[in-house]
Design brief:
single chain; alpha+beta; Phosphorylase Kinase, domain 1; Transferase(Phosphotransferase), domain 1; Jelly Rolls; 3 domains; 9-stranded antiparallel sheet; 7-stranded antiparallel sheet; 24 strands
Length: 543
């Protein structure tokens, strides 16, 4: 729902729209009864349609509204009107921390900004409220420079919507999410500490610790990769400050500081807190979280949560109009895009050129192409950046504006060996779609369909030392994509071997693709356009 200036929502008259993201549209409004301006966050109408959402929305809004702290944006009101849920809160117009990051900031200024935020987080934690989306664009500044934390609890309010985030899913911003949050596990205050640790890392070095071409790759890096040492990014930092950051950004929640204030205190005076600062560099996870279920980190419901988040993340961090208010603004990473690396010489690759027939065994699955098959879908019908929806005879991923994205995971799980044929249609401007075949701790394998270059490419997502690079396997295959033409992309996955086929023509083959768990996921990103899955058949591997 879009509100025009002069429209009323509850007792508030809209003045102007000041921001828009995947989770809310933000308006400056006037409350005549108290002669004051407020910030109104309007949630997408989709949420109100979910069973029981109104009750959960009210419960969570009440819990957050009870917070009274000088460094937390105060919530004044909540309500629903004509099926639209909204939150009214304090209007702050002094800018955000996101406008300052992107270059190293002095340690004393970093502490000055983060100490009040740490106090706000610990206060909320003492009242059993987690933030879940701490990032520079949610740290506002009053006109006198006082830092104020906004959107407290909004991620949980959004996450309570049935059908939007189900078991194993989460909502947040990948660059600032703790490993346990990316996995969809139950959160503790340590997750907010980790997020503030990323903010501190970014303020002190000028970049976030992990960045990649896709949100999924960022989440994998947070879970699996050692933290890039802060002093390798900014040599002017002391070893003591580096040790503090390493502890706050430990992979395991129990290895971090006891609370957020102790983290910032140690950042200010490391020598006075040596008893609780571990100088041991947090190690990468080996695929199993100690003390938890013995299951791969990138499997089952965890992947579902990651892919849902991949769709939301672009809407939140790329699809927001910057505003010096309570609106979310895009956070600067300062790290730049991931770069491609050559295919390792040890990787055997052959490219087929002769039209042939893809060998298939028994048909074991045919997609129904309806919403029942979409596990953890990101669907905002009124979102202007991207959406996922089931239409008669197809599942569509639509991008409506620059840098939009949408992602989904099909509920069917293939075996380690299978043959799949995807019937697809695609049209748009600079639109790229990826079909994920495997996902694991060091990356995965996917098929990339590029509407601008008119190519299909088999490629690996190679994650090493905190950076994820896209590595093409063999030469791209030429194809014609348009709205009316159906292209059949086939893959033969047999153990560690993956072969690509396009309209029955053999493409590249990789013979050592052993990493990762099989899954069917799809993501689209670019300027504008639509990717349509109009058929999916899975066969067993012929004997």
């Amino acid at each position: 729902m879009t509100l025009v200036p002069g429209a009323n929502i509850g007792p508030y008259r809209v003045v102007e729209q000041i921001g828009r993201g995947g989770m809310a549209t933000v308006y400056k409004a006037y409350q005549a009864s108290l002669a004051r301006y407020v910030a109104i966050k309007v949630l997408p109408a989709f949420f109100a349609e979910q069973p029981g959402f109104a009750e959960r929305f009210q419960q969570e809004a009440i819990a957050v509204a009870k917070l009274r702290h000088p460094n937390i944006v105060q919530i004044f009101d909540y309500g629903q009107q004509d099926g639209v849920s909204y939150i009214a809160g304090e209007f702050i117009d002094g800018g955000t921390l996101a406008e300052q990051v992107g270059k190293p900031l002095p340690p004393d200024y970093t502490v000055k900004m983060l100490r009040p935020i740490a106090g706000a987080l610990d206060y909320a934690h003492s009242r059993d409220v987690l933030h879940r989306d701490v990032k520079p664009s949610n740290i506002l500044q009053a006109r006198d420079g006082t830092p104020i934390l906004s959107d407290f609890g909004l991620a949980k309010i959004i996450g309570s919507g049935a059908g939007v985030t189900a078991s194993g899913a989460t909502v947040g911003t990948p660059e600032y999410m703790a490993p346990e949050q990316g996995q969809g596990l139950e959160l503790t205050p340590a997750a907010d500490q980790y997020a503030l640790g990323v903010v501190a890392y970014e303020m002190l070095t000028g970049r976030v610790p992990f960045s990649a071409d896709t949100p999924l790759a960022v989440l994998i890096a947070h879970m699996q990769k050692p933290l890039p040492l802060p002093r390798t990014v900014n040599p002017n930092l002391s070893k003591a400050i580096e040790a503090v950051l390493l502890k706050a950004l430990a992979k395991e929640p129990g290895d971090r500081f006891p609370d957020v204030t102790q983290f910032v205190n140690a950042l200010e005076d490391p020598a006075a807190h040596t008893a609780i600062i571990s100088t041991k560099r947090p190690a990468a996870r080996a695929g199993v979280a100690p003390g938890r279920d013995r299951r791969p980190l990138i499997a089952g419901g965890a992947v579902a949560g990651l892919l849902l988040l991949a769709g939301i993340a672009f809407a939140v961090t790329r699809g927001v109009t910057p505003a010096a208010t309570g609106a979310q603004a895009p956070a600067a990473s300062g790290a730049g895009p991931a770069t491609s690396t050559p295919v390792p010489t040890a990787t055997p690759v052959t490219t087929g050129t002769t039209p042939t027939t893809q060998k298939k065994g028994n048909l074991v699955y045919t997609s129904k192409l309806d919403a029942s098959e979409i596990n953890q879908q990101h669907v905002f019908p009124d979102d202007s950046f991207g959406s996922v929806r089931a239409v008669p005879g197809a599942i569509e991923l639509t991008i409506l504006k620059n840098s939009g994205s949408a992602a989904m995971l099909l509920s069917y799980r293939p075996q380690n060996s299978y043959v799949a044929e995807y019937d697809v249609q695609m049209n748009g401007t600079n639109l790229t779609t990826t079909v994920n075949l495997r996902s694991g701790p060091t990356g995965g394998y996917e098929v990339a369909l590029n509407g601008t270059q008119q190519t299909v490419v088999l490629r690996r997502l190679d994650c090493q030392a905190g950076q994820c690079n896209v590595v093409p396997i063999g030469a791209p295959m030429s194809v014609t994509f348009d709205a009316d033409k159906t292209v059949t992309v086939g893959v033969t996955v047999q153990g560690a071997n993956i072969s690509l086929w396009v309209d029955g023509k053999a493409g590249p083959t990789i013979s050592n693709a052993a990493d990762g768990n099989p899954l069917f996921s799809f993501s689209a990103f670019g300027n504008t356009g639509t990717f349509r899955l109009v058929g999916l058949r899975v066969y067993d591997v012929p004997s």
